[in-house]
């Protein structure tokens, strides 16, 4: 078998390190690799359902009054007035939001005091508006600000709630129809993302070390090949494991959260999407790290079979081992080779 150049793991681990570092840093500053988010929430339609209540029905939406049927006396009257209170609360909100009149959906978020999108990155939550507008297909994202997510939590609801409360209508998320299921999905996402980012940071560290060790191997192999190969194998293996782990957690979480939010947010005008760019750079980095790991594993096995990576290694020795391959397994010969390198 021919030698594989040591340039392979150096280039592969360097490229993997750059990609995984970008995956970590994407979105860390407003507008920096904004498209490389894990999950983005499109909030430009929030509140749309309230406007429709006012426009489509002359009467406020009838709350299921049959709920109170069959309950007599005081309890029945309480039940009826309770549902009436809910009706009037709903139409009150609808009236307030209807101040917006027939303005286009595009301005809704703005009028409510929130932004049109909220995007989750490894380290941050960014918010901003679509440009030129939310309904244009393939609209760009114009980021206004980014908040620390890893240290302060990825609770999008808290940001929305704050925006709504200080907004002109002083609404809450509950007013917009945010359900507990929706909040549960966001809370779960919040928790898992922290674990994901922690793993990603460790993965970045090991990938960096693996890259440095591959470069150091250039110098170290003539001195102590066994140690250099072993250290590289361990570092590449650790980098690969943490990268795969964080990649799987990120991919699976983003996918489940997106489904849950779309399922529960559909009727209140909330939608979400997974970031494909993010997935691509993460999994390409995994592929590159797999190449690096594969290279060192191959060298490790070769070394155990008594072959050396050192190009200045004894000529005779190198020829011998190639011949031994050609002649098949000759036990005494491979035994000699083995003990020579093991020394
Ligand atoms: C982005 O937002 C800023 C203010 O938040 C605004 O001044 C700017 O015009 C927007 N850019 C685009 C392309 O819409
Ligand atoms: C959104 O922007 C596009 C392109 O600028 C424009 O054609 C369209 O009318 C806008 N839609 C709304 C609702 O403003
Ligand atoms: C955001 O959501 C609105 C309303 O739900 C939809 O019309 C619009 O196409 C979406 N925009 C993007 C960029 O996903
Ligand atoms: C997130 O924010 C919402 C709204 O402020 C709040 O109801 C919810 O409890 C928060 N979740 C966590 C996990 O802090």
Automatic annotation (TrEMBL):
Name of a matching Pfam family: SUR7
Quote the protein name from its UniProt record: Actin cortical patch SUR7/pH-response regulator pali
UniProt-listed Gene3D superfamilies: 1.20.140.150
Here the segments flagged for biased composition (Polar residues) are 334-343
Q: Which GO terms describe its biological process?
A: fungal-type cell wall organization
Domain of life here? Answer: Eukaryota
Span-the-membrane segments of this chain are: 196-221, 233-257, 277-298
Identify the InterPro entries for this entry. SUR7/Rim9-like_fungi (IPR009571), SUR7_domain (IPR052413)
Recite the UniProt keywords alphabetically: Membrane, Transmembrane, Transmembrane helix
Chain positions covered by the region annotation Disordered: 310-343
- State whether keyword Transmembrane helix applies: yes
- Which PANTHER family does the UniProt entry name for this protein? CELL MEMBRANE PROTEIN YLR413W-RELATED, SUR7 PROTEIN
* Residue ranges with Basic and acidic residues bias: 310-322
A single GO cellular-component term on record: plasma membrane
């Amino acid at each position: 078998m021919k030698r594989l150049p040591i340039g392979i793991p150096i280039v592969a681990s360097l490229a993997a390190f750059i990609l995984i570092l970008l995956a970590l840093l994407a979105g860390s500053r407003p507008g920096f690799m904004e498209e490389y988010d894990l999950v983005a929430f499109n909030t430009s339609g929030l509140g749309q359902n309230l406007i429709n209540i006012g426009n489509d029905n002359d009467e406020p939406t009838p709350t299921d009054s049959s709920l109170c049927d069959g309950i007599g006396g005081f309890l029945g009257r309480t039940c009826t007035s309770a549902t009436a209170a809910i009706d009037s609360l709903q139409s009150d909100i609808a009236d307030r939001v209807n101040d917006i009149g027939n303005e286009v959906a595009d301005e809704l978020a703005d009028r409510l005091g929130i932004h049109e999108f909220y995007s989750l990155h490894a380290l941050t939550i960014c918010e901003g508006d679509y440009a030129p507008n939310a309904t244009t297909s393939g609209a760009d994202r114009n980021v206004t600000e980014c908040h620390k997510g890893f240290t302060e939590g990825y609770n999008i609801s808290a940001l929305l709630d704050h925006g709504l409360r200080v907004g002109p209508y002083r609404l809450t998320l509950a007013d917009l129809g945010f359900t507990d299921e929706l909040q549960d999905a966001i809370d779960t996402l919040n928790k898992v993302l922290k674990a994901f980012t922690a793993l990603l940071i460790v993965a970045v560290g090991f990938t960096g070390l693996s890259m440095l060790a591959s470069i150091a191997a250039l110098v170290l192999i003539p001195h102590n090949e066994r140690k250099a190969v072993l250290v590289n194998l361990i570092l590449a293996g650790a980098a690969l494991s943490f990268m795969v782990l964080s990649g799987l957690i990120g991919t699976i979480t983003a996918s489940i959260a997106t489904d849950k939010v779309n399922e529960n947010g559909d009727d209140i005008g909330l939608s979400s999407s997974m970031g494909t760019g993010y997935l691509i750079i993460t999994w390409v980095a995994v592929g590159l790290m797999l190449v690096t790991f594969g290279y060192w594993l191959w060298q490790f096995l070769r070394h155990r079979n008594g072959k050396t990576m050192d190009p200045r290694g004894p000529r005779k020795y190198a020829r011998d081992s190639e011949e031994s391959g050609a002649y098949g397994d000759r036990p005494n010969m491979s035994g000699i080779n083995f003990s020579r390198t093991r020394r």
